[in-house]
Amino acid sequence: MQILRDPLGNDDSPPGAVISIGSFDGVHIGHQAVLTHVVERARSMGAAAVAMTFDPHPVKLLRPGVAPRLLTTLDQRLDLIARTGIETALVVPFTHRLARMGAADFVRDVLVDRLAVREVYIGDNFRFGADRSGDVGLLRSMGAELGFRAAAAPIVEAEGGVVSSTRVRQAVEEGHVE
Question: Global pTM?
């Protein structure tokens, strides 16, 4: 897997990609389902399969006092992402400047102007942009206007609840791991 660090500062990102965006902490089965779908869609379209992740984790920068202990280091996360078949990982430095960027500006400036994405897949509960104002609805409406497709991956449930990094962390802290 190709790893591009600071992909917004260079021109090496593959244009016309099918992309998923997320922190992907732990790369749990919910993340794996989204990433596997990205790989399948990209292959069917002859496009690159790309995962965009952030370093540091956004909460660590925005609310360091309540930032969760991460399940995986960045290198571990990238290794787990590679195992899904993703071809390129974009590691975006999460800065205060990026945190202040509005969701619509992120879509226009990053996804369309910089990356020229063809399709974007996110988890149904994923939020992005300043004040977490962006969601799949915004991606769909802007995609219709700007020429890309967007969809939310279905939420994955296991053992009576939604699979999430928060829930995995809680299970680890309680010693409920297999």
Answer: 0.88
